[in-house]
Design brief:
Blueprint: H1 5-8, H2 18-34, H3 38-49, H4 61-76, H5 84-98, H6 100-113, H7 120-130, H8 133-147, H9 155-167, H10 172-181, H11 188-194, H12 203-216, H13 227-251
Helix pairs in contact: 2-3, 2-6, 4-6, 4-8, 4-9, 5-6, 5-8, 8-9, 8-10, 10-11, 11-13, 12-13
């Protein structure tokens, strides 16, 4: 991996310390023992210094990406086994989300930390303290994508994502809404869950719920996290629109 810097170079001061900083520092140390090339050395140095003032607490694209790497490692270990097929699934999903080059770079870090003992609560606490609610919602969306990369989502994976969500202060309603986005198309029951309303909701309640969800999931909230994340946010936003359209069609709402 010649450009690991592109994965971790844009991280903020808050990510340098705490349990996440420890994990990534361990990963870089492992990589540098096998490859002392200039790019990796510069990446390690940049990570240790943060490439910016430690007082800069704004979330950067690198913060989101590294947080996702660590949380994905937790999810993939949910069933107690990590085999090559599962690793391939995660890499495939990262390719879908970030493109081949960035996925390859990310995977070098991922393979190093996936077998480490990662504690959910302190990891989530560090993220929660520094990342806005909209960004945390997007992390959960991505984790469902990782979990379902093999075509199925195991109950143990759902349970660990739920635990992560609760530790990130994501409500159960928001968790179920995101989970429902990954249900098969044309699932009307899932559409109601996505909008967080009951099937007997009135027309006014349906329209109010749609406006609320459209604001909550609007891609513009994630502009600062880069094109990769904003593109996925657009996908989620479209799913909300499709859920609303399906409900309106079923109820004859114009």
């Amino acid at each position: 991996m010649k450009k690991i810097w592109s994965v971790i170079g844009g991280v903020s001061g808050w990510l340098m310390g705490g349990p996440i900083g420890g994990l990534i520092g361990f990963a870089l140390a492992e990589l540098l023992t096998t490859d002392q090339s200039g790019p990796k050395r510069r990446a390690a140095d940049a990570f240790r210094t943060g490439g910016r003032s430690a007082k800069d607490q704004h979330v950067q694209p690198g913060d989101f990406h590294v947080s996702l790497l660590v949380l994905s490692a937790i999810v993939i270990k949910a069933d107690g086994v990590v085999d090559q097929r599962e690793l391939d699934y995660v890499r495939q999903r990262f390719v879908q989300m970030f493109g081949k080059q960035k996925a390859n770079e990310s995977f070098e870090i991922f393979k190093t930390i996936v077998n480490k003992d990662i504690k959910v609560t302190p990891i989530c606490e560090q993220i929660r303290r520094n990342m806005a609610h909209s960004s945390r919602l997007q992390l959960i969306y991505f984790l469902f994508g990782v979990a379902g990369a093999d075509g199925t989502t195991d109950f143990s994976e759902v349970d660990v994502i739920r635990r992560i969500a609760r530790n990130l202060y994501i409500s159960d309603a928001d968790f179920e809404s995101i989970k429902a986005i990954f249900q098969p198309a044309n699932n009307l029951a899932a559409a109601y869950v996505i909008l967080e309303i009951s099937e007997d909701a009135s027309e006014a309640e349906i329209k109010k719920a749609y406006r609320k969800m459209a604001v909550k999931y609007h891609p513009d909230k994630l502009q600062h996290l880069g094109e990769d994340v904003q593109k996925a946010a657009q996908e989620k936003f479209i799913k909300v629109q499709e859920a609303y359209d399906a409900i309106c069609k079923a109820k004859g709402i114009s």
